[in-house]
Amino acid sequence: MFDKSYIDRMFSIYPSLKTLLQESKTVKKARFFITPYLEELTQTLNTEKGEAKPVEWLLQSSCLTALRRILSVRSERVAKFSVLELLWLLANERYDELPDELNDGFFEEIIHLLQGIKGESHIYDSDAYPSFMSFEGRKSALLRSKQLNDMMNDSTDLMQRYPCGLDPDIQKIRTENRDRILAFFNATEADWLSHEWHLKNVIRDADTLGKLVELSEQERQAIEQARADGLPFGITPFYVALMDRDAGRKRDHAVRAQVIPPLNYVETIRNQTDEQAQSFDFMKENDTSPIDLVTRRYPRIVILKPYNTCSQICVYCQRNWEIDDVLMPGAQAADETIDTAIEWIASNPVISEVLITGGDPLIMSDSLIHSIMEKVAAIDHVERIRIGSRTPVVLPQRITPELMDGIAKFHEPGRREVVLITHFEHTYEITPEAMQAVQHFRSRGMSVYNQAVFTMENSRRFELAVLRRKLRLIGVDPYYTFNTKGKEETKSYRVPMARLQQEVNEEARLSPGLARTDEPVYNVPRLGKNYIRAEHHNLLSVLPNGRRVYEFYPWEKNLTMADTYIDIDVSIHDYLQELQRRGENIEDYKTIWYYY
Ligand code: SF4
What we know:
The chain is an alpha/beta fold. The protein is built from 25 helices and 12 strands.
């Protein structure tokens, strides 16, 4: 369903476009006319003098390039959809032939695109250049300084909306939460400091969780259904203490969403066919594993997965297809399988880096972790061992001095580096305990990096910028921000890629260099990371339901022949509606349409 007034609004931007489409008896004829029409627009843009300010011209130019690509025959073939045909049907009022899924999202995309081409994007508050540009010396510097202050004051208001677990008032709430949880389990403060106690008391059902924090009806239903369907679910008592007691999700939305599945997630998995179940292996790890426990997507680095579960399960985990349950028996790979995998790595001298992950490898026993590291470190050509773990966030008590001393032995400056790659999603997950866990690594000379996943829960303006800022303060370097994977079951977590581009180009640009160092990436199934900033992707089309179709180029495109990957994003219009439902002023996001 769509609002019919959109049709007039769209064609009123370029009435000549409508005329051209109406005068074309067929879509083929329309294409014949559209090519010179677009050429003429390009000529006008490139030859008219003094009309548009340079930044507006740049925007016009990128919109026109996007439109030309969208209307090209190749894009139609690759995207399997013709925007030109849909425009032709609309211009000729052939409403009976319109696709059922046509909705406002499509019109919003095309209207913004055409407005952008015409120089009517209205994304700049003023046409005038800032006043400091008319002066020189101190006067100019003072005016510029004022402009920078104004810029920051606006964004500071937005940043202050995100509480951090280091804030004294939040720490106080967490202490109360801890005491409430301990009373429920009839346990002591000493128990709270023991990771074994937390692992023994992982909360695995809605009834127990409901006695510790309030659950909304939806949350309770989703957990119960997930358990009945055998889906992995579990939360450490420590992580439950990060949840607010009431179910409003005002501050703890990211924490709850991390572990409590939405109903649509549970239902999608319940209704999966065998064929769809295959698609849950979104990253095609089955196709990139040369030997059991090993994944290889790059020449010099491999992933080693000796332990196949975690102390709690993230709903959107890319490995949810192979994790049966929290701390499931049998998650630990057999010694011989681990040894064979390590021998395989040893037999490949080009491999210089091993990422030990899982699951979460830091849930294994000290002796096993140390023994695996010892065997990997004994390989001459391994220069770096990465440990991928969310334990500092969800179970920081596990990062004991004994564990750390055993790990730190293999960090030998000049010979071999050991680093931790962890996964904080939100400032609300940062706690004094997590900071201490991070400092255990740092004080032994090891670096700690963060990989965030950009989801509906941390994608509001400056939400991630504040996370990066706070992470730097506790000793964690922002490393990657991942665009949420296109897995069907986690669609309510997904954020349009344009929002990630906007975040990088706007919020991150207002941060000092060291706090904006992470790299936004799209993980291409089977092939690995596509660096979004480097623009190794193209917008191919906009579907009738407002979802963009992108083509991603693999990282090795300049080195070897490789195929591209086509992905259908979530609709920007739907995303903005959801933000509005959550209380956001979507005017704050108005430039999102202009990232391609
Ligand atoms: S910690 Fe990592 S492996 Fe474990 S559930 Fe979360 S995303 Fe998956």
